[in-house]
Design a protein that fits this description.
With 215 residues, the protein is an alpha+beta fold. It has a single domain, classed as Sandwich (Jelly Rolls). 14% of the residues lie in helices and 32% in strands. The strands form 3 sheets. The protein has a 7-stranded antiparallel β-sheet, with helices on one face. Strands 7-12-9-10 form a 4-stranded antiparallel β-sheet, with no helix packed on it. Strands 4-5 form a two-stranded antiparallel ribbon. It binds N-(carboxycarbonyl)-S-(naphthalen-2-ylmethyl)-L-cysteine and fe (iii) ion (FE). The site of fe (iii) ion (FE) has 3 residues, from loops.
């Protein structure tokens, strides 16, 4: 359980990687199995898929969504929608347990009362990557973003305000939570190609859950 007192307190495991960015090492490690247990039902309602970039290339990462809003990319660009374009149905509800964890992580990083309305579910197979980009499709840049890493390790690239600024590399392992907001909210970031490996809970995949206040 992440609810124990130790996890709720600021601890030396918390690493300030930027003025508004905090890496909570292992914050959900003990609740990872419970988080992952919710996935099959969500992915049955809204299957993983490789969305198209506006330029017409399939993305390397497979994605799904839950919450009242879901992020969509296609030939028309990037946006948040209330319905899954694949099924025509609303996105599955955000599991209350996930929402609570995201709120606790934000609070541990210094962002009080974070209530996400969107959770992007990214699944990385070995070799999948995400190029440098900014998250700028949300309405309110004052809310933080909470990112939960599960399964295979990723090397994260944290850039600056401009695309060509130097990047800092961070190793994100199973159970780590990265929270960013404030002056860091619009920094460029990406994920290097996932190295071959196997994790006892996720097999040959990395999952990343990105909680946002989109609307
Ligand atoms: C932004 N996903 O889906 S956000 C995305 O690992 C995305 O799949 C990442 O970027 C993933 O849009 C998780 C990670 C992140 C970390 C640090 C940042 C984004 C950041 C610092 C500043 C700005
Ligand atoms: Fe992003």
């Amino acid at each position: 359980m992440t609810g124990d007192l130790f996890d709720m307190l600021e601890s030396p495991r918390d690493e300030q990687v930027g003025p508004g960015t905090c890496l909570l090492h292992g914050f959900v490690r003990n609740s990872a199995a419970e988080i992952l247990a919710a996935l099959p039902a969500l992915l049955e309602q809204a299957p993983l898929r490789r969305m198209m970039t506006p330029g017409g290339q399939p993305m390397s990462v497979e994605m799904s969504q839950c919450g009242s809003l879901g992020w969509v990319s296609d030939r028309d660009g990037y946006r948040y929608t209330r319905r899954d374009p694949l099924t025509g149905n609303g996105w599955p509800a955000l599991p209350p347990f996930w929402r609570e964890l995201a709120g606790q992580a934000a609070a541990a990083a210094g962002y009080a009362s974070f209530v996400p309305d969107a959770c992007l579910i990214n699944r990385y197979a070995v070799g999948s990557r995400m190029g440098l980009h900014q998250d700028r499709d949300e309405r309110d840049f004052t809310a933080p973003i909470v990112s939960v890493s599960l399964g295979l390790t990723a090397i994260f690239q944290l850039g600056g305000a401009g695309r060509s600024d130097a990047v800092q590399r961070l190793r994100l392992v199973h159970g780590d939570v990265l929270v960013w907001g404030g002056v860091d909210r619009l920094r460029f970031h990406g994920v290097q190609a996932i190295a071959p490996g196997r994790h006892e809970l996720t097999g040959e995949f990395r999952y990343n859950l990105t909680f946002r206040k989109a609307g």
